[in-house]
Amino acid sequence: MRFVLGFDGGGTKTHCVLMDESLRICAQSRSGPSNPNRVGFGGALAAVCESARLAMQSANISANDVAAVCAGLAGTAQPDAQKKMRRLLIEEFPGKAVQVCTDLELSLESTGDGPAIVLIAGTGSAAVGRGAERQILRVGGHGTLLSDEGSSYDIGQRAASVSLRAFDRLGTNTELGSKILRASEVADWQEFQIRAQAVPDEVFPKLFAVVAESAVLGDASARELLHEAVLDLVGLVRDLIGRLQLNDGRFLFLKSGGMLGRYPQFDAELDRYLLEAAPQAEFGALAISPAEAAARMAVRLLPQASAVTD
Fold it and tell me: Is residue 309 included in any domain, yes or no?
């Protein structure tokens, strides 16, 4: 029996699925972030290898039993990054078939066939879709410097900025600002800035929870931040619908990402605006997880398991 490894990696975690060639899931595991843009190629490789080790240990198999690997990682959309990550994985998994794609491609793979759009709302944000002619396009997802609007990172960064500006204006922290400092385990904004500059991926994304919980309690600034995020996320979907020319056709619409399913008020507002933006869409849920989709893609590599040259 041959086995494969499928990875879904982003800015917060890496999910691994160990599957046999009959498509039976044998083990699953999770490790740290594996977006090379955020943690570097060495950090991304370490997270992938750690999740692989945990999955193989759980299934009581060795690396010799694995015949193919597919890693869908955020931060590998550019050809050079994808090629470098693949080379590193080939070195780490010698003799295996290796494929590298983006995490967005995994989400789309999870929808099956036919026109579809997937909105990703997590540490980063993007919308990826497949049109009636099977063309695949992406909107957003270009990283925190120029994109990722509406993501947990973006919300956290905006919340910190708003709260710091309020402190400058008032000379004291707002309730939201105090919560942000406590959640970040710092004493003041100077210390916050030092920490945020050193490890932004550890600081900003987790502030989404602070903002969402404050919004539930009626904080006006927190509610406004979430509303702006909803509009940004829906804007990604609107743009992609237009580019794929799906305005008048039926298509499957799905959502994925760590921001979803945690705060009913946020989910409800997002769904309301999405229904207005895409009244022709059939809303559903991913049939399989992105990591399982990666493992299924790895199974398709098995006939060429000996062809691993770059």
Answer: no
Nearest to 107 by CA among 249, 254, 238, 6: 254
- Is 269 found in the same domain as 144? yes
- HSE of 182, CA atoms in CB hemisphere, 13 A: 10
73: CB partners within 8 A, 6+ apart: 7, 9, 10, 34, 35, 36, 44, 48, 85, 100, 101, 102, 103
Output the tens digit of pLDDT for each of the chain's 310 residues. 899 999 999 888 999 999 999 999 999 999 999 999 889 999 999 999 999 999 999 999 999 999 999 999 988 988 999 999 999 999 999 999 999 998 888 888 888 788 999 999 998 899 999 999 999 999 998 888 889 999 999 999 999 999 999 999 999 999 999 999 999 999 999 999 999 999 998 899 999 999 999 999 999 999 999 999 999 999 999 999 999 999 988 999 999 888 999 999 999 999 999 999 999 899 987 778 889 999 999 999 997 544 444 4
Q: Are strands 66-73 and 97-101 parallel, antiparallel or unpaired?
A: parallel
Task: Determine, yes or no, domain membership for 194.
Answer: yes
CATH of the domain at 210: 3.30.420.40
The CA distance from 279 to 267, in Å, is 17
Q: What is the domain extent for residue 72?
A: 3-107+289-304
pTM: 0.79
Cα-based angle 203, 206, 210 (whole degrees, multiple of 5): 115
Amino acid at 82: Q
**CA separation for the pair 52, 58 (Å, rounded):** 10
Looking at the fold, whether 131 and 274 belong to one and the same domain comes out as: yes
Residues 253 and 162 in one domain: yes
Nearest alpha carbon to residue 215 among 164, 171, 168, 269: 269
3-state secondary structure of 152: helix
| 45 and 125 inside one domain | no
